[in-house]
Amino acid sequence: MQSDEMYDELARIPLCPGKSFVSNTMCDDFINLTTDTIPSAFWHNVLDEKTHLKNKHALKAIYNFSQNCMKRKKFERFISNNKSGDNDDVYIPSPGVPSHILDLSNDEIEKLLTSSSS
Question: Is residue 103 exposed (0-12), middle (13-18) or buried (19+ Cβ within 10 Å)?
Answer without folding.
Answer: exposed
